[in-house]
Amino acid sequence: MADESSDPKLGGAAEALALGAHGTLDPRAAAYLVKQARLTELQIADLEREDALRHWSLRVRHVSDVMKLTFELSAAFVVLVLVGLICMTLWKAAHDDSLVIQSFSVPPDFTARGLTGEAIASQVQDRLAAIQDGSKTSRPANSYASNWGDDVKVQIPDTGMSIGEFYRLLVSWFGHETRISGEVYRTQEGIAIAVRTTGQPGDIVRGSDADLDDVVQKAAEAIYARPQPYRYAMYLMATNPAKNRPQAHALLHGLIANGTPLDKAWSYMGLSTYEELTDPLHAVGINAKAIPVAPDFALTYQNIAAEEQTLGHDEAALEPDRKAIALLSAGNGGMTERARNISLPSNSAALAELKGDFVAALHDYEVASALPDYAGIADSSNHRIVYELGSLHEPGRARLQWRRRVRPSAGHDEVLSDSVDTQALAAIPDWPGVLAVKGDLERLLIPTPLLPFTTEYTKQTLTRNIWPYAAEALAHTGDMKGAEALIAKTPLDCLICMRVRGELATMRKDWAEAVRWYAMASAQAPSIPFPDNEWG
């Protein structure tokens, strides 16, 4: 329909009605227009209010949506955190290899004396920790079939389902936790402690009330021996090698017969270490048995190299030294990180020393001496630094380093220290010092109940590591007859022994005899430069 205002006839009629007969505005029309204006104003005001309300509503709805989104994101974050915690707890439970000692059952009179089940469990924990500390080796923890790490703890029973109880339930489902339980009870002779370890047969140790500490110690040793035979054997060897040798050897031979390849290799290491301190000539052969079992095991080659060099077989030490360095440089070698870190520069220094590169040997020994120690390598490196400085014709620095070194107080370590010191003093040279160490060492090597040095160990140590340098010292201090008599007692398969024979002949100006000894030494060690240098 067309708009009425577009019809000229209608438009004219409306205009005539509004203006009236005399062309003035009709009052009724004026009133109507006023009302229409008022209505329009009201409608505009209403629309403005509605528009403001609509905008406010939109803002409220936006804020509500934002808050809803924030809540949903927060809820999702909380769920993710909970899921993460659950996953972490499950992972930790699945990888839990700790040792848990449950509260022991004890007689009522024990409790009355304060010896509760928790107290006995704590005593067992302390003894196990001491055994663990005494059995430290360079063997990585993950190479044991049963490894507790260093996590040994006493479990006190809880009442109800606590968070701790729930975690223990998860560990029992998914983990590899080792649990120890036991009871103390009275017998006709005194007391007994029965102990049981997860997956192992039980053990019973007996004694009197007065021997409670000893009974607890035996119980702890029984607990440790079954799942950790290699570590327990090392503990026995470290505490009293003479007394404990049969038991330790039985454990190691059992692992060689029935253990994993790594068990076999490490057991050969344990046996060879004992031979180093009792019959050194047989140590290399025992170590060599580990090579077919674990050909990438660096400690085998490291030990063979050290044993050959100690015997004066310098040429035979070269190849195992190179092999150990290659395996350690590759980043593993079957040893702990701490042992590997210090063994690498130590082996590199030993190889450089054999080849006559005293500058490189000095650098590597300085590196090793500054690292966290393993098996006394840091201290022995400090001793070797004296030798390297002396060989580099720096007697002042060598003597200063000599005063800084730390000498072990007793035992086999003291003997080994004196052996290295003899060579170092000869390199300075300090001939009176060499003779003083010789006297100290000969007195030290007299067997005692605490230090049962074998006749063979004493013989090999003196003839190969001490007397050649002492013979040099006697010759340089004017006692050529004594020097000749002493060097004659040394073996011919020892390079330094052959070289000193050549040196003594040279000092006597017996050139033919000197050439004979140097030629024999050169043939014995064709890759070692010292005999050829001295011969020339």
Short description:
This protein has 536 residues and is mainly α. It contains 24 helices and 5 strands. The relative contact order is 0.05.
Write the element-wise H/E pattern from the N-terminal end onward: HHEHHEHEEEHHHHHHHHHHHHHHHHHHH
Q: How many distinct helices?
A: 24
Give the class from helix and strand content and strand pairing. mainly alpha
What proportion of the residues is helical, as a percent range?
55-70%
Task: Describe the largest sheet.
Answer: 5 strands, mixed
> What number is the mean pLDDT?
81
- Specify the overall morphology: elongated
Radius of gyration: 44 Å
Strand order of the largest sheet: 2-1-3-4-5
**β-sheet strand percentage:** 5-15%
Give the N-to-C terminal Cα separation.
132 Å
Instruction: List low-pLDDT spans.
Output: 1-6, 141-148, 156-162
Total number of strands = 5
Q: Would you write up a description of this structure?
A:
This protein is mostly helical. Helices cover 67% and strands 5% of the residues. The protein has 24 helices and five strands. A five-stranded mixed sheet has the order 2-1-3-4-5, with helices on one face. The relative contact order is 0.05. Mean pLDDT is 81; it is low at 1-6, 141-148 and 156-162.
